[in-house]
């Protein structure tokens, strides 16, 4: 079942310039540029210094930006609060919450929840559950990667029909992050096909050397909303172990999706947005 919400077309609602400018200022901050002086910020958003200063000052007052003693701006803590609301109230989070708890309790391994953005074909890490093992790996919440990177991206692609993957492949930028990174579209296609057949995707030393993982797509029909993943050191990730984790995670996700669909069909509980 595909759940849709009515929304006006972009052409029917004219943009609000002040909101656009405030959004551009917030989006100017990146992992490569986490702090910007006023002049740098104005250049990044192509606005006059006076306009940039006025908007930035308002954002500081509201907690969306902060300013240090040298005058540099950075993202504010209010965004952390809002980000937590987004990650905890999304359909993806609700579908995956019980799965993440169960897997974490039974394996002690790290888990990641990645939400896909089909506009730019990227995956954003929205939640993580740390491992209880002494040797641990993880990924920071808020990290964004292309669909061709790691098991989460492959899992999301495996949730699509083959013909749609074929249309997407030319637009997926493949980056060599480690010695075993996938940089060839044909190889990525083979990995995605394998993941589609068995219900889960895997990686070993592809995204980060020494790190392996498995991931399962999550959705209620149509394109996947994202994927839930188990990440662990390659030293603990034998083929047998990954196969066991993949089968178990796939089964848990499918049961969670069926439960949500049954509840939606019967009208029991609150409908997922």
Characterization of this structure:
- There is one protein chain.
- This protein has 273 residues and is an alpha+beta fold.
- It has two domains: 15-76, Winged helix-like DNA-binding domain superfamily/Winged helix DNA-binding domain (Arc Repressor Mutant, subunit A); 82-266, Beta-Lactamase (2-Layer Sandwich), CATH 3.30.450.
- Helix content is 44%, strand content 17%.
- It has helices at residues 17-27, 38-45, 49-61, 78-89, 91-107, 150-158, 162-168, 185-198, 239-266; strands spanning 35-36, 65-67, 73-75, 110-117, 122-129, 144-146, 201-204, 211-218, 226-233.
- The strands form two sheets. Strands 6-5-4-9-8-7 form a six-stranded antiparallel beta sheet, with helices on both faces.
- Strand 2 and strand 3 form a beta hairpin.
- The longest helix has 28 residues, at 239-266.
- It is globular, with a radius of gyration of 21 Å.
- The two termini are 13 Å apart.
How are the SSEs placed, and which strands pair?
Layout (H helix, E strand, L loop, with lengths): L16 H11 L7 E2 L1 H8 L3 H13 L3 E3 L5 E3 L2 H12 L1 H17 L2 E8 L4 E8 L14 E3 L3 H9 L3 H7 L16 H14 L2 E4 L6 E8 L7 E8 L5 H28 L7
Antiparallel strand pairs: 1-3, 2-3, 4-5, 4-9, 5-6, 7-8, 8-9
Helix pairs in contact: 1-3, 2-3, 5-9, 6-8
Concise overview:
With 273 residues, this protein is an alpha+beta fold. 44% of the residues lie in helices and 17% in strands.
């Amino acid at each position: 079942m595909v759940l849709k919400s009515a929304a006006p077309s972009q052409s029917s609602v004219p943009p609000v310039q002040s909101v656009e400018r405030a959004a551009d200022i917030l989006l100017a901050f990146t992992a490569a540029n986490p702090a910007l002086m006023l002049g740098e910020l104005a250049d990044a958003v192509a606005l006059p210094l006076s306009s940039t200063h006025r908007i930035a000052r308002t954002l500081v007052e509201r907690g969306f930006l902060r300013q240090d003693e040298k005058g540099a701006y950075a993202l504010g803590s209010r965004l952390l609060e809002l980000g937590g609301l987004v990650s905890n109230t999304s359909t993806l989070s609700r579908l995956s919450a019980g799965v993440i708890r169960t897997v974490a309790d039974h394996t002690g391994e790290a888990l990641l929840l990645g939400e896909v953005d089909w506009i730019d074909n990227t995956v954003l890490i929205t939640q993580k559950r740390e491992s209880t093992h002494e040797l641990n790996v993880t990924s920071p919440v808020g990290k964004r990667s292309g669909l061709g990177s790691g098991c989460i991206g492959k899992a999301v692609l495996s949730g699509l029909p083959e013909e749609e993957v074929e249309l997407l492949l030319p637009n997926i930028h493949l980056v060599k992050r480690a010695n075993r990174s996938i940089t060839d579209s044909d190889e990525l296609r083979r990995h995605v096909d394998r993941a589609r057949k068995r219900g889960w995707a895997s990686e070993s030393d592809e995204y980060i050397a020494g790190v392996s993982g498995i991931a399962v797509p999550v959705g209620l029909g149509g394109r996947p909303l994202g994927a839930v993943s188990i990440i662990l050191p390659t030293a603990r990730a034998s083929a047998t172990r990954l196969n066991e984790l993949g089968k178990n995670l796939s089964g848990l996700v499918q049961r969670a999706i069926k439960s949500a669909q049954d509840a939606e069909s019967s009208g029991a509980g609150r409908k997922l947005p």
